[in-house]
Write a structure and sequence with these properties.
Elements: E1 2-8, E2 24-25, E3 28-29, H1 30-39, E4 44-51, H2 55-61, E5 68-71, H3 79-89, E6 95-100, H4 108-121, E7 126-131, E8 134-142, H5 146-150, H6 159-164, E9 168-171, H7 184-191
Parallel strand pairs: 1-4, 1-6, 4-5, 7-9
Antiparallel strand pairs: 2-3, 6-8, 7-8
Helix pairs in contact: 1-4
Amino acid sequence: MIAAVVLAAGSGSRFGSSAKQLAELDGIPLLEHALRAVEAVPAIGRIVVVLGARAEQVRAGVDFGQAEPVVCADWAEGQAASLRCGIAAVADAEAAVLTLGDMPRITPDVIARFAALAQEHGAAARARAIYDGMPGHPVVLGRDHFARIAALEGDVGAREVLKAIGADPIECSHLCSPADVDTPEALEELRR
C-alpha cells in the first residue's frame, strides 16, 4: 500500500493570528487544495493529514474527504514531531508520499509521479521534488527509511534524512507550482 502524509500541524506564526490551513483560496480552505490533489491519485491507498495547532478549528473548517486527520500532540516541538507522527500513522505502508498542506497549487500529476516511484521502488523508495533545481515537495520515502524519520528531533524536516539516503532529485517545475503560503502576502500573490 502506498500512503500519503499531508503535513498541516504548524502554527503558521508568520501568517498571523488566524489558522493558515483555513485561509480561503479560490473559495476553499488552503488545506483542501492539497487534499484534493492527493485524493485524485488512484495509486494512493490511504491519506493521513497531520494536524496540531488549532486542530479542532481546522477539523471543523475543512472537508477532509477520504483523508484521516491525526493530531500530533507534540506539534510545538517542531517539524520533526509532525513527520514522526505522520510516518507512525502509516507505518504499515510500503512507502509514503509526503507533502505540505500549505502548497495549494500542488497537482495530482506531481503526486502521481511520486506514487509511481513508490510503486516502482517499494520499501526502498527515496526521492524528492525539485523545482528549477531548488528542493521542495512532494517527497517519497519507502518503509526502509521510516526509522530515520522516527529518530528526527527538533524543528527539522526530512532534508537531512533525504541527504543521508541519497534521495533522487526529480525535476517537477513542469508539473506544478511549488508556491507555499507562509504569509498573508504570499496568499495575496496566489490570489492574483
